[in-house]
What does this fold into?
Amino acid sequence: MPKGYIIGNIEVTDPEGYPEYVRRDTPILERHGAHFIVRGGPSEVLEGTAGGRHVVIEFPTIEAARAAWNDPEYQEVAEIRRRCAKSTLIMVEGTE
It folds into this structure.
């Protein structure tokens, strides 16, 4: 069964408030089997435009990724991100 991924392109607008989101979202997502492959760090745009922070989260399945996203506790914490950043988030199924 293919893995599921949530990929984020994030432009942090409130660098003092954003770390609270990171601190609180991690245990919620990990309960759904999340493994952070990329979480910030230096990056280089090779083509097009992108925000300053990139995230790739791997889940055991696309269903696990969807369950993490729909978790009411996560959605409550996601409000912090929505206040502190402009985000584009994509859920995608991996290859087998």
Q: What stands out?
A: The radius of gyration is 13 Å. Residues 18 and 84 are 6 Å apart (CA to CA). Residues 4-93 form a domain with the Alpha-Beta Plaits fold (CATH 3.30.70.100).
